[in-house]
Amino acid sequence: MTDHALTLDVLGSATPYPAPGNPCSGYLLTAGGTRVWVDAGTGTLAELRRHVRLDELDAIWISHLHADHTADLLTAFYGALYADISLAAPIPLYGPSGIADRLAHFLTNSSRRSPVEAAFAVEELRDGHEARVGDLTLTSRAVSHGMPAFALRAEAAGRTLVYSGDTAPCPALTELADGCDLLLCEADSADPAEGERVHHTADEAGATAHAAGARSLLVTHVGPSLTPAEALARAATRYDGPIEYAAPRSVHTL
């Protein structure tokens, strides 16, 4: 076990669908003996199992209900109930409103509702939601993604990581990330999309890190219009602190 207060293992960072060798969004956050699966995008469950079994997780935290952040909850349901582990209790699952019914509707193959609560103890997020999970304090803020979506501030032993989830730049994220040790921020594209804004560009990821006074920036969720190197270069035009890319299987310690 690491001596660091917080460790982030990148399970995947691809969008909008997996790339060879890179699942969609998913991370394992570890503090002391506490382990939280943050977002469960396509392909991340297999990578999670390199580190921890489902019955060893302390919680799962989900930013929003798009498939590239949630799809592996479906296979986790089967793994938790019908495979080679035995849960002592359902896994605490923090996610947007309606997450339990969304899973149940997908999994149900008859008129009987799928028993998702046997696998997951669901607690719905709200703006300002706070949970204590073992050594971690998890604070969630509602952000701007055109649907219920949340960013996360995780704190342990005086160290802080903030994860943007998917969002356009917004005051709630900047406030949540104030003075954090590491901002894990999406850098979805090179240029702002036309119409409704629901993502950060790479430049904006740097701008948010600068505005928040983050000590370091980790760019993730880099879309197909950019290479990771291009995303880093563009973020660096707006932020002069340390910047890295959330490469799959990379480990980041605070």
Automatic annotation (TrEMBL):
<feature type="domain" description="Metallo-beta-lactamase">
    <location>
        <begin position="23"/>
        <end position="210"/>
    </location>
</feature>
<protein>
    <submittedName>
        <fullName>MBL fold metallo-hydrolase</fullName>
    </submittedName>
</protein>
<keyword id="KW-0378">Hydrolase</keyword>
<dbReference type="Pfam" id="PF12706">
    <property type="entry name" value="Lactamase_B_2"/>
</dbReference>
<dbReference type="InterPro" id="IPR001279">
    <property type="entry name" value="Metallo-B-lactamas"/>
</dbReference>
<dbReference type="InterPro" id="IPR036866">
    <property type="entry name" value="RibonucZ/Hydroxyglut_hydro"/>
</dbReference>
<dbReference type="GO" id="GO:0042781">
    <property type="term" value="F:3'-tRNA processing endoribonuclease activity"/>
</dbReference>
